[in-house]
Amino acid sequence: MELQGVLDRAADGGRITAEEALALYRDAPLHALGAAADAVRRRRYAGTEHIATYIIERNINYTNVCVTACKFCAFYRAPKHAEGWERDLDDILRRCAETVELGGTQIMFQGGHHPDYGVEYYERSFGAIKERFPELVIHSLGASEVQHMAKVSGVSIEEAIERIHAAGLDSFAGAGAELLPARPRTVIAPLKESGERWLEIMETAHGLGVESTSTMLMGTGETNAERIEHLRMIRDVQDRTGGFRAFIPYTYQPQNNHLKGRTQATLFEYLRMIAIARLFLDNVAHIQGSWLTTGKDVGQLSLHYGADDLGSVMLEENVVSSAGARHRSNLLELIHLIRSAGRVPAQRATTYEHLAVHEDPADDPVDDRVVSHLSSTALELTPVQS
Ligand code: SF4
User: Domain named Radical SAM core: which ranges (predicted)?
Assistant: First the structure.
């Protein structure tokens, strides 16, 4: 295969096959790959290509009790484990109140597959959040949680999605995609639904009007071909539904889990993935770079390798942090990172509209309370009535 010809075609916006993507991912020079992906990004966002976005959000972990026991996960505890916990609704609402207070627009409900949590639990939680904080977008959960809650409640996937959507869920975060191809998925998450099933459920959600993002966990021992196969599986569904708003790869963190960090993705592999995703996923609007698992410098670099978004100021994050992600940031720093990477920062909504474009540094937000990994009791707030 003539790599340069394929790279030129991809940079010009031509669709490339999975085989061609694998060849580029493996063998194209890193900078050439990044330059081609950046050319695609610039054309896709012509007129706003000087902007890179971020969002202010909070992950809210409602329980760490989980029956699924994924081998890469450092967060979960088996039912009846002494370190298992569940957050009550008052606590969840307090975290939502802090999010609003700090200018956050989105919450990501994230937790284990609790043996007792069916559709009713999420209806109750989302309903209470929306009643109190209608301005918060609930961008949460994924196909795995839907499959689990439907089973607990004895209802169909369609009914589970329709009910939690009616209760307040705005979009799915696409959690649980991990690695979609069967071999690596079975190794790292043997009790999770298959990759095909994960996609089927997301396709059902898209058909019911609930859009989502898509994710990929890199570095648990999967091959390059399996990474590209993961992208192909997403692109095929996206051709039918158009419901994936973004693709977000992130890297496996090695601490406190059963895989024990025996394999990990390198930062170069991560940057190559950002670039090949921009080139291959010609039907997905946004590619998100990350500072949380790969560090701030690599996050900045990702903006030159095809990413148009640098993720979020995560007011709270416990899942990948439990597995060793040590990077921390805040709003002022995130804005600085984007600006010093040569882009104009813009706060975005969940649906990627620009809420505030920070053209002039003199007008930058100055609230230094907006920090990642905030303690839940950090702010003095009026008590929330449940
Ligand atoms: S990744 Fe999610 S489903 Fe898997 S063990 Fe952890 S909490 Fe449970």
Answer: 52-283
Atom of ligand 1 nearest to the CA of 178: 1
Q: Which atom of ligand 1 is nearest to the CA of 75?
A: 6
CA of 272 to the centre of ligand 1 (A): 27
β 344-348/354-357 pair status: antiparallel
Q: What is the pLDDT of residue 377?
A: 47
Q: Determine the residue of 61, 68, 146, 250 to mutate for testing ligand 1's pocket, defined as the one with the most ligand atoms within 8 A of the Cβ atom.
A: 68
Is residue 75 part of an annotated ligand binding site? Answer: no
3-state secondary structure 297-309: HHHHHHCCCCCCE
Query: Which tens digits make up the pLDDT trace of 132-166?
Result: 999 999 999 999 999 999 999 999 999 999 999 99
Distance from residue 30's CA to the centre of ligand 1 (Å) = 33
Three-class SS state of 4: helix
Ligand 1 centroid from CA 65, angstroms: 9
Copy the structure tokens of residue 253: 């963190």
pTM above threshold 0.90: yes
Name which residue sits closest to atom 7 of ligand 1, judged by CA: 112
Q: List pLDDT tens digits, range 190-236.
A: 999 999 999 999 999 999 999 999 999 999 999 999 999 999 999 99
- 66: Cβ below 6 Å to ligand 1? yes
| pLDDT tier at 245, thresholds 50, 70, 90 | very high
Domains in the chain and their CATH numbers?
16-362 (3.20.20.70)
Q: Is the dihedral of CA 230, 178, 141, 299 positive or negative?
A: negative
Which ligand 1 atom minimizes the distance to the CA of 112? Answer: 7
* Atom of ligand 1 lying closest to residue 72 CA: 1
